[in-house]
Amino acid sequence: MKKIAIIGSGNIGLSLAKGLVKANFVQAGNITLTRRNLSHLQPYQEAGFQISSNNNEAVKTADIVILAVLPQQLNAVLDEIQPAIDPAKHLVISVISGVSCAAIKEKLGADVQVVRSMPNTAIAIGQSMTCIASDNASANNLAEVTQMFETVGSVVKINEDLMTSATALCACGIAFFLRAIRAASQGGVEIGFHADEALKMAVQTAKGAADLLLLHKTHPESEIDKVTSPKGCTIAGLNEMEHNGFSSSLIKGIKLSALKAGNLYTKEG
């Protein structure tokens, strides 16, 4: 079984580690988690993961290197691990927003195979939507990365120039849909439900709506048509939301997040 080093064990790195172990893709002992402050990783060490504050050493013992640091930290990390990178051994996977394969190879070496991957935090429960792209990875390595992320959700291979857009729609999108659920639960409180009841109702309703599309493979509007009747309460509520910019605000938010994601990383520094 291959060994994995997750460089930068914040929310997304830890979500990935937990998801891969939960799906039995790899044992916890074959994953090394790195972080500057190891106190945050003590519960993971107790769960069987290897932990380290030395990125270079973690890379040396790994076959797959997953870069999960903040974009602003990446250049320093790449300089740190570059001496340990062996193009014949290592597959590098980056889950960092706005950073191209070319930018990583510029630091680590042109022969290093790099795959960009954009999961979201639902990876921890095996429900991620992960997009992957590469400009030089072999078919075998792409298949391995696909298999890795399919154990923790769905995977779509896309062109690399769409990776920033994937960040906004899938990674940031988790927060957008959570905020919509929160708003629905607040509406439930206003019409008479206790907060815990309203949240449970909103969560299950949102899950049901998503599953309808996944299982029926239908368009949202066809499912909406089944709920709306002439002069009914559903269409009245939908139209009120649209008059107040529901769809347009979500579209604008996704576009702005995509723009922001594309500007998080600079080669300087």
From TrEMBL:
Domain Pyrroline-5-carboxylate reductase catalytic N-terminal: 3-97
GO molecular function, a single term: pyrroline-5-carboxylate reductase activity
Record EC number: 1.5.1.2
Family as reported in the entry's similarity comment: Belongs to the pyrroline-5-carboxylate reductase family.
Purpose of the protein: Catalyzes the reduction of 1-pyrroline-5-carboxylate (PCA) to L-proline.
Protein name (database record): Pyrroline-5-carboxylate reductase
Organism the protein comes from: Pedobacter albus
Domain of life, per lineage: Bacteria
Pathway: Amino-acid biosynthesis; L-proline biosynthesis; L-proline from L-glutamate 5-semialdehyde: step 1/1
